[in-house]
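Researcher: Here's the sequence for the chain we discussed earlier.
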Amino acid sequence: MSPEIQRIAAETLSEALAEIARADENPHEAVHEVRKRIKRLRGLLRLVRHAAPEVFALENGALRDAARELSALRDDKALEEAILTLDQGALEPTDVEAVQGLATRLAARSRDVDPQSLKSALQRVDTVLLAVRERSSQWALGDLDWPALVRAAGRTYRKARQGFAATKRKGNDEVRHEWRKRVKYVRDHAHLLHGLAPERMGMREQLLDALAQRLGDHHDLALLRATLANEDFAGHEREALSRLIEQRQDRLDLEALALADRAFARGRKRYERQLERAMM
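Model: Thanks. This is the structure I predict for it:
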């Protein structure tokens, strides 16, 4: 399996580098796509963590630092998109104006990112990704086989399933955020394994993608709620926005929990057996 893992890594790195190369066309979209591929690569590395701990430590650290270069560049755009998901139909006209005013300010901030800062950040990420791609052909992955990948994916699945249980018990933003990260790792593993067994893994990938989307939207709304404290609103406007955010988060919670009931219905052993059957 080592050549397949290296092939997937090299292809994903090349996709990220291509996004950077055409970043002038749509910088925010490029940042989003590069971050998405970095997350997939980190998910891939988690599959080989036990088989190749030194490779994992080096490359995961490099990719984590690269992602941090871009995270702040994405935040205002994510908040702008989050506010557009709020149902403004029940608001008073003055509150609608407040919501639209905040959306305008967030849009302006996302457009006003210093072009040179953006270019410099992307250049630094480009350098890191080129180095990771060059090293990937020489990764010493040991005796990596399908059963080893299945066990690694099973460990990630178990942690995500535990996160689901913790979220149902506690339900706060911190616990949900940790669960969200675990879900994305499982989703990214499904995406990577889809490349090895597309007919069997495609539906699971779609389910996990839908779940990760709901959790991501919920997280963006939590960030939006925190942003309200720094915005110039009258008290009633802030309260109205907070209610809208809470209502939207409640709907996302219901949808996410229903999806998670399906995604994590199996225990770890049954999940691993499913993955084993996918390659038969």
